[in-house]
Amino acid sequence: MTLAVDENRVDEVVKSLSRKMLINGEWVDSASGRTFETLNPATEEVLASVAHGEAEDVDRAVRAARAAFDDSSPWRRMPHGQRGRIIHKLGDLVLEHLEDFALLESLDNGKPYAVAKAADVPLAADLFHYMSGWATKIEGATIPTSGLDPARYLGFTLREPVGVCGQIIPWNFPLLMAAWKVGPVLAAGCTTVLKPAEQTPLSALLLGELAMQAGLPPGVLNIVTGFGEAGAALAAHRDVDKVAFTGSTEVGREIVKAAAGNLKKVTLELGGKSPNVVYADADLDAAIAGSANAIFFNQGECCVAGSRLYVEAPVYDEVVAGIREQAELIKVGNGLDPETTMGPLVSQEQFDRVTGYIRSGRDDGATISGGDRVGDRGYFVAPTVLTETREEMTAVREEIFGPVVAAAPFDSESDIMPTANNTNYGLGAGVFTKDVGKAYRTARRMRAGTVWVNTWNVFDASLPFGGYKESGWGREMGSAVFNNYMETKTVITDLGG
C-alpha cells in the first residue's frame, strides 16, 4: 500500500503528541497513574497509551475550571475582543496543523486522510473563526416596560456566561465535535472540561496544545481522557453548571439522570434514523449520488446518515440500482491509502454492532447487497443496501451507525410523510425533487432539526444544528448555540423622580 503521508511523518506526529491530560494549563498523569491504549482501527495495532482519567481527575479539572471562571481571573477580566482574537488564533493554528490533524483523525478514527484533510479539519478551523466574532457581539437589551413609569424605571438585560461546562464528545468526528463544543463555550466566556471519546482521544490532545499556544489562560480549557466513568463523573459533578453531550440516545438519558443532582443545564445532540425521500420528478443522477453520500459518508458513522431511503415507486428500481452501483465503486481500505474512499469502522464493538444489524435484516427477510467483511484485519465492512424491507424490522427502526441503508418504495406525496416521521428520532432528513413547492411542503412536514433539499451532509458554522424528539435538546452552531452557554439577567433600576 502506498501511503498518502510519509511513514516517518506518521511516527513523528504520534510520538510528539502528549499522552497526558490537560489540567490547569499543565500536562499531567492520571491520579491513579493508569493509562489505556488507543488503537488504529485499520490495523488493530496500538497507536498510543493515554492517561486513564477517572473521578478524581475530573474533580481536579473542574476545580481548575472553576478557579479560571472566578470574577478576578484573567479570563473573566479579559476584554472580549482579546478573547475573540485568541479563539481566531486557535482556528489559524488548526489550519497550520492541517496535515497533522488529518493524520491523527485517520489513524485514530479510521476515516480517509483525504476526507479529514478536505472536510473535518477546515470545518473545525472555520468554526473557531466564526465563533471568534461572537465574543464581541453577545448583547443584552434595553426593554420598554409595560406597566411601569418609563421615566422612573429602567429595565435591561445582561447576557452572562453560564459558568463551568462539562463537554463530552463522540468518536465519529473527533476534532470537529471538539470544535463545535469548545468554540462557543470560549466565545461565551465560560470555562470547560472536555472529555473526548476513549476510542479517539488524540486530536483533542493536539487541540489542547494549540489552545495554550493561542494564549488561552490556564484552567479555561481542561481535557480529561478516559472512559464512561469519567464522563459520568463530569455529568454528575456538583460544581459543573452545564453539561453538553454528543452521542447515543441511550447514554444521553444517563447524562440527564446524572445532571439531576444540582439541576445543571443540559444540551444533548443524540442519535438519528434519518428519512431520505426521493420523488419520481427528481434529478435522478443527483438523487442517486446524494443518497449514496447521505449513507456512506464517514463509513455511515454519522448521526444524520440517510439510513431510511424512500423512493417513489416509478423510479424505485432505478434509484436503488444506482445506489448499489455507487456502493460497488467505493474503495474500502486503510484511510492512509490515497485510493481509499471508505475507511474501517472505529472499533471491534462498532464492527460487531453493524454486522449484527445486517444479520438481523437478513433474518427478518430483507435482501442484502454488500454487507461483507472486507479483508481479515481491521474493522472493514462493505457498504450495504437492504431492500424488501418493512417498517417493523429492527434494522429499519434502530440506529445502526454504519454504512447500511434500508430502502422501500412509496406511492405518493400524501402517503410518505407519516412513514418518514414514524421514528423516535428527529435529527436529519432529506428530500430530492425538482418541484419547489413539493420540496417546501415536504421539508415543512418533516419532524427533524435539519432538512436537506437536493443535497446532504452540508454544514456551516453559521447554521444551527440539533434534533427533535429523542435526537436531543438544544442547538449547536450559529447564534442559537449561545442559548446553551448564556444566562439572561434582568436589571431593574429605580431612577427616582
TrEMBL record:
Coiled coil: none annotated. InterPro entries: Ald_DH/histidinol_DH (IPR016161), Ald_DH_C (IPR016163), Ald_DH_CS_CYS (IPR016160), Ald_DH_CS_GLU (IPR029510), Ald_DH_N (IPR016162), Aldehyde_DH_dom (IPR015590). The keyword Transit peptide does not apply. The active site is at residue 269. Keywords: Oxidoreductase. Residues 27-491 form the Aldehyde dehydrogenase domain. It comes from the Bacteria. Belongs to the aldehyde dehydrogenase family. This is Aldehyde dehydrogenase family protein. It comes from Amycolatopsis heterodermiae. The lineage of its organism: Bacteria, Bacillati, Actinomycetota, Actinomycetes, Pseudonocardiales.
